[in-house]
Amino acid sequence: MTTEMLKRDVLAALTRVTAQEGGDVVSHGRVRDLTVEEDGTVRFSFFLSPDDPPSMVRDLRAAVETVPGVKGVKVNVQLPRAPQGGGGGARGRPLQPGSVPAPTPRPGLLPEVDRVVAVSSGKGGVGKSMVAANLATALAARGRRVGLLDADIYGPNIPLMFGENRRPGVAEGEGPERIAPLVAHGVRLMSLGFLLDKDQPAIMRGPLIAGILKQFLEQVAWGALDYLVVDMPPGTGDAQLSLVQTIDVDGVVMVTTPQDVATGDVRRGVRMFQRVHTPVLGIVENMSGFTCPHCGGEVEVFGKGGGEALARDLEVPFLGSVPLDPGVREAGDAGVPTVLRAPDSPAGKALMALAAKIEELLAEGGEG
Ligand SMILES: Nc1ncnc2c1ncn2[C@@H]1O[C@H](COP(=O)(O)OP(=O)(O)OP(=O)(O)O)[C@@H](O)[C@H]1O
Ligand SMILES: [Mg+2]
User: Fold this and answer.
1) Model-level pTM greater than 0.85?
2) Residue 288: CB within 6 Å of ligand 1?
3) Protein fold of 113-367
4) How many other CB atoms are there within 10 angstroms of residue 124's CB atom?
5) Quick check: CB of 289 below 6 Å from ligand 1?
6) What tens digit of pLDDT does each residue of 278-314 get?
């Protein structure tokens, strides 16, 4: 079968998905840029509407997956545009839901960025990238202009979590050439991983990274952003410290798992950021409790509640807990963050609530 024929079948399958406003999603022009690759991978952009059922993207995928010859589906979900205008505009003022204030210039490296939030952890593998990806996507879904910087050169995985494997191109416009971020799920993405080839070993260490990062960031055409979320490399050593100082981070979200609470890494990290006057917005407990898919009962695989106790002890806010959920990993692998793929699941709700909480905290922080 030629890709042209496959494309026709895919389009026919998509035409069977009905839109909330009546009729099908294709005739409403909500499916765009449909391409079919030689290997059977189908890609298209889908323009989500606020009235769509939470299962919309899943339904689209399911429809395409049933077409014989389709080997993979990549949906680039486009979120509804936030209403323009309104809002106070001063850095640190509370953001009104749905309004997009014009950021006031931020001195230094990122003049067009209003607020920078770093997601960090004491050790690796606790779900930092997962939290960063969902936080960024949730903020975009709340109508904010959001960028996500993957600052982990050792294991960059943000592009994959957004279903992106393209390399960024050159931004259009006057002046010196700049790099255009990729856009997926309403979030502008940039990864230090784009600096490296897949097989090239990441030999850069410590302070060197901060220097390269600075140079790199100056060349990214972010455009005006309400939030830049930074996915930090694991650990809380000198490299991380120089990163948050170079980027001039407004607040750090610390991610921990219940079994890591006791190790002291999070505690050291929080203290370290506070010492250099980088506010710690709070602690998120990830992989906290597990709802048994068979009996529906809650299983505390790694225990639960330690993050909250630690936050109390360190006198930083507790930002909530995200349950261990196989769907969270699947969402990451599928390139669609949980807040879009399963917004009504307990994990999806917890991650949406986290975004609301972060907005609240940054608004308050700026007032003081
Ligand atoms: N709540 C969760 N439930 C199930 N799986 C999860 C959850 N959170 C994260 N994961 C999975 O755990 C793995 C590690 O998560 P992630 O890559 O976000 O961690 P990380 O802290 O960024 O790791 P690294 O330090 O390597 O950058 C991923 O496969 C992710 O999908
Ligand atoms: Mg990571």
Assistant:
1) no
2) no
3) Rossmann fold (3.40.50)
4) 13
5) no
6) 899 999 999 987 777 777 677 766 666 789 999 999 9
